[in-house]
Amino acid sequence: MPPAPGRSRRLVIVLAVAGAILAALVGVGLYGLLLAPSAEPAASPTPSETATPGPAPDTSSVATGPSAPPAVSTTSDPEAFARSVAEALFTWDTATDFGPSDYAQAIVDVGDPTGEEAPALAEDVRAYLPTQEAWAELRSYQTRQWITIDEVAVPAGWADALEQAAEGQLIPGTVAYTIDGTRHRAGTSGTDPVETEHAAAFTVFVACEPTFDECALLRLSQVDEPLR
């Protein structure tokens, strides 16, 4: 189905409500390294960071083989799609032959099929992954990451965005889901296993039927700045 007129402006209201969508996170900033830099003694996790061994990442959406970057499930169910996006965003393993661009590509591939949101979405996705430099540092600790999802819900603020949106700004089937969960990281310091966990919240903007037969990812909010 052809896109509605003026769809290039369709997320203006959404982005204004969510705030700072395009602001990139530094790979060693919010996400931080699991451990201290290799030139310094490894940091021991505090009691609040230490967790019992967490569940393994959900591999139901893995493309081919256990070491492949997670693929986002193809579905017309917007909530199931949002969950799959969240798992793909937060699941990676530096001990594989893949890098940040490989994990990012798997998510960009399920973006707006018209390509109109592609550049902005690619920028959003890069903000969720470590930089190449941080990735190399994390690899020295064989760091892997995954997420456990606690809640997926349409935020109350989305109703306000719909009310404020002018005709044509939001294509039919567009919906926002705010995801609350826990980001886990595990690795080794020497021969000692180390694991940390931190709360994570973000909003996924998707478009499904009737515009697209299968859901497509439009944009992502900044981590810890979700639409509420």
Task: For this entry, give a set of tags.
228 residues, alpha+beta, five-stranded antiparallel β-sheet, 6 helices, 5 strands, elongated, disordered N terminus
How does this model look, in words?
It is a single chain. The chain is α+β, with helices and mostly antiparallel strands. 24% of the residues lie in helices and 21% in strands. It has a five-stranded antiparallel β-sheet.
Helix content: 10-25%
- Assess the beta-strand content as a share of residues: 15-25%
The largest sheet, given as strand count, sense and whether it forms a barrel, is: 5 strands, antiparallel
Q: Compute the number of helices.
A: 6
Q: From the alpha-carbon coordinates, what is the Rg to the nearest angstrom?
A: 18 Å
Uncertain regions spanning at least 5 consecutive residues: 2-9, 11-66
Q: Which structural class do you get from the secondary structure elements? A: alpha+beta
Output the helix-strand order: HHEHHHEHEEE
